Amino acid sequence: MKGKEFVSTRNPCKLCAPLGASIAFRGIEGCIPLVHGSQGCSTYIRRYGISHFREPIDIASSNFTESSAIFGGGENLKNAIANVSKQYEPKAIGIASTCLSETMGENIPMYLSQYEASRKGESGGPAIFYASTPSYSGTHMDGFHQAVFAAVKAFAGKPDENGENVQAACDDQPPADARKKINILSGFVSTEDLREIRDIVESFGADCILVPDYSESLDGSSWETYQKLPEGGTKIADIRNMNRAAGTISFDVSAREDRRAGLWLEKEFGVPCAPLYLPVGIEQTDKFFDELSRISGNPVPEKWTKTRGRLIDAYIDGHKYCSGKRAIVYGEEDFVLALSAFLDEIGITPVVAATGAKNPQFAHCLAAASPNSREAPVVADDSDFETVLSIAQDMKADLIIGNSKGYHLARNLKLPLVRAGFPVHDRMGGQRILHLGYRGTLSLFDSVCNALMQAKQESAESGWTYI
Amino acid sequence: MIGILEERKLQVFENGKDSYGIECGKSSAAGSVSQRACVFCGSRVVLYPIADALHLIHGPIGCAAYTWDIRGSMSSGPELHRMSFSTDLQEREVVYGGEKKLYAALTELIAEYRPKAAFVYSTCIVGLIGDDVESVCRRVERETGIRVLPVHSEGFKGTKKDGYKAACDAVFKLMGTDDETPVSPFSINILGEFNLAGETWIIKDYYRRMGIEVVSCITGDGRVDEIARAHRAKLNVVQCSGSMTSLAKTMKDEYGIPFIRVSYFGIEDMTKALYDVAARFDDELITRNTIDLVSDEVGRLLPRLEKYRANLIGKKAAIYVGGSFKSFSLVKALRHLGMETVVVGSQTGSAEDYEYLKEITKEGTIICDDTNPLELSSFILNKGADLLIGGVKERPIAYKMGIAFCDHNHERKEALAGYEGMINFAREVHDSVTSPVWKFSPARIRARISPDQGGAI
Ligand code: SF4
Ligand code: SF4
């Protein structure tokens, strides 16, 4: 069924690691991403991010030249840190390596300690942390998880032998009435999703430490003056406190174990971690709510019970449009898993589930995600859009769900494309599509039904007004 | 005003106030958020529109993923250029070398897509691991019988300009391999027109009406076979001189084809382009055709511009584009709309370019080389610009500061060249500048309340 395998990638269904890292860094308050390598990478990442988020995304680069590629980029990195600190006055600098600097074997931690040593005596200055993100061994999602992990480790880690860790300074006594907080590792979701998660957690009467949180920094209001680093983002002080939270919920089931900050917090500090699927669909959202209820000790607030009720009502109203339909889903692993579970729940069989990442967990997680489907989906990890197209040709699918990059697929197969995920750069509002929770599910459900209804209308000879 | 990085002080100039020569052509300061890309970017954007060629990017996935469909570059036929092919190097190739994978990728892709030629772009990492791309290309060329051209575009080995040069070298290698069909004595190549939104077709139509044969357009709506016979044309007409002058020079040295520089943006420059070409041929019929064409087009254009102009008079514009040649035309085109340029800069301008900009702009105009978002936003506010002309990376800067925007770069979907393009340009600028939404912009409101603090950041 799967056509000839190609050695080359033809229309990639993935991006490179520093992109994921840069987005995650932008979700930390006052943090500027600094990509260590040549200039093109950071400029391309900016351009790409800008077309989805429609916001300025300043990402610095250490701007390798030929000689830095030969003699090492230490000087570039140190100058870059100094320059970017001067110009942007950031609270933190998140450094991501590139293929180039990784291949050269750049010892970034060493450069950083040299830099620190060179400014002994000077106080202040941004906190600097680093994520290793070579793209030849992972996708933008690996970069994303790696960056979140790096931030958590840097700020919530144990003080080092000198007791000098940044964490120590902030570890003052919590106020006596401090409520226990809940860590949420959100995964790569939309800005509206982030806001929704926060709303949900807070509605349980709990405080939420959401990492990363680019809901404002990458989807803010119009400005009065130019902001070097837009407001918003997880506060570093909050990240410091993650190691004594009541629990962690992490939406990263498909990520590599050694990149999951939640598991690390559990191991190092005993903060219990519940890895969940992204809460799309009733079943997965229920699990999220149950977990919140358990950790916070509070029942599910009534407003959500009502929303859930409306969602069920909508499912029933719309079930005939969906039942027996077949869908193609692609994108980041966790995203595809969540969407597949949701589709399965509304009677649509995900017949193709594809991702650009090479991920051994993927097939396994997917099988668990779609128990109702009569037919097992073709699971295509390490895939690209041309491969998806060749698989999809004879799948008799009815619709496609995924990011804008599937546009050619949709055009080729003459199928409706429900846009979701990242990037959505050919529609307005792509950055704030709501996918998560009962409300997100409801809006996805409506979009799916409407796409199917429109397709039916358009293909019907006489046209229908009531459908 | 924000602090300009020490290294960059001489790259920013205020007309009438400063007196030094603007520094340019140097690499961006480490840690700056430059709007520039890399060598690879330069090569890729130049070769992009060759639609019947295979474009294979040798490196890890990012470079290919980010340039997939980055240019609209329309084609009247094949669309192979709009696919993104990459060897997607993985750890093992980084360690053991990527030649095998490159060979396998090329062979399978050529068999599958049967392109007329193939370009292989080397990205940063390939330069570092030292793959012998040349020999792989030669081997595949031998085995498949099509031209397989390496493009040396390792990102760190210079600037975007070096990428242009690498692209020109590759294109040049295609020339001289055609079937020798003769061309008209009145024939040209169009260089540096990329058909982003169908402009090539507009320009080609003008030349056709003048009685001139266009042998090839390099590279807009490009075809390998046309490029192969480009060396037969009698004149090269170079737009976007930054990217194409090196090719024009090589063609002059090797084939004795003279070249002239033109720009197709704005009324004067468009008209001058046509007249300059006509003058080169010194033929009565062509001259008459050209006069007719110009008077016809301009005659129709001017009244149509009027309604836009009426609302734009007195507004101020900022320009930040890739190539400086384009900025000259834009300064003039804006003048036709009654607008004055108060900030102008480019990623890759030369010293002479900046001198020329000093001449054609007014006192107080800021001229800058390789700027960044912080500077640009501060210049815009400081000079009270109503409009920014730039590319996708500049767009959010304009919008956040509450000013209008016109995309004049890779991703635009409006044809802005030629007389028709001038109308589109006017309409786009007009529609953005006069939109009622700006009245809600906090930055705008603030500027209105305190005009003298407009630029204080
Ligand atoms: S890796 Fe090199 S060639 Fe690719 S985008 Fe980055 S700088 Fe450019
Ligand atoms: S070199 Fe690596 S990090 Fe840079 S753009 Fe290419 S894939 Fe991404």
TrEMBL record, chain A:
Q: Which GO terms describe its molecular function?
A: nitrogenase activity
Q: Does the keyword Membrane apply?
A: no
Keywords attached to this Swiss-Prot or TrEMBL record, sorted alphabetically, are:
Nitrogen fixation
Gene3D superfamilies membership? 6.10.250.1090, Nitrogenase molybdenum iron protein domain
Q: What Pfam families does this protein map onto?
A: Oxidored_nitro (PF00148)
- Please state every residue range assigned to the domain named Nitrogenase/oxidoreductase component: 16-452
Which superkingdom is the protein from? Answer: Bacteria
Q: Which residues form a coiled coil?
A: none
Family of the protein in this entry? Belongs to the NifD/NifK/NifE/NifN family.
Query: What name does this protein carry?
Result: Nitrogenase
Task: Give the species.
Answer: Teretinema zuelzerae
TrEMBL record, chain B:
Q: What does this protein do?
A: This protein may play a role in the biosynthesis of the prosthetic group of nitrogenase (FeMo cofactor).
Record the organism: Teretinema zuelzerae
Q: In which pathway does it act?
A: Cofactor biosynthesis; Fe-Mo cofactor biosynthesis
Q: Which Gene Ontology biological process is one annotated for this entry?
A: protein-containing complex assembly
Question: Can you give the residue ranges of the Nitrogenase/oxidoreductase component domain?
Answer: 38-432
Q: Which UniProt keywords apply?
A: Nitrogen fixation
Q: Does the keyword 4Fe-4S apply?
A: no
Q: Which family does it belong to?
A: Belongs to the NifD/NifK/NifE/NifN family.
What are this entry's molecular-function GO terms?
A: nitrogenase activity
Look up keyword Disulfide bond and say if it applies: no
Protein name per UniProt: Nitrogenase iron-molybdenum cofactor biosynthesis protein NifE
Q: Sorted alphabetically, which InterPro entries does this protein's record hold?
A: Nase/OxRdtase_comp1, Nase_comp1_CS, NifE, NifE-like
Lineage top rank: taxon: Bacteria
